[in-house]
Amino acid sequence: MLVLSDKEIRASFVNASRKEIADLTLPAGFIDTDWGRLDYLGWRDPKRARRSYVVIPTPGGPVGIMLQQPEATPRSRAQCSWCRDITLPNDVVMYSARRAGTAGRNGNTVGTLLCADFECSANVRKLPPSAYIGFDREAAREERIATLQVISAAFAATVQDAS
User: Fold this and answer.
1) Which helix (H) or strand (E) holds 113?
2) pLDDT tens for residues 117-156?
3) N or C, which end of the chain is more exposed by having fewer CB within 10 Å?
4) pTM of the model
């Protein structure tokens, strides 16, 4: 992921009002972010318990999305839709995002299951176990990274899609 400034992050949001963007709190340690190990930037808002943000690189530039976590908690352990880590090393929660434009103002949302603290980039970079003799673990890791990038960009496109 390319290095982004505070100003670039705030300008990237497609489903937030100007006030929500102005009130946005960047993640702790933002200045020390290791951008080279991220496929997207995600964080929870320390001031608002159920609000989170993701900034996803896309061919058209970074897309910032404000997420909301529902009050209800899932009854069973879920798998993250983005990193698809089968070892379930961390909690996964349902996030919803208001769609961009008129659709969002009309109350339309899109939901996804995500690692609660946005650990997807770290999860896909773990070397997977050997599935069989001759299994190329490094190629599998590279494929998982590429898949995360495609899935997150597709989510950004869905939020942006006005139809």
Assistant:
1) strand 109-115
2) 899 999 999 988 888 888 898 999 999 999 999 999 999 9
3) C
4) 0.88
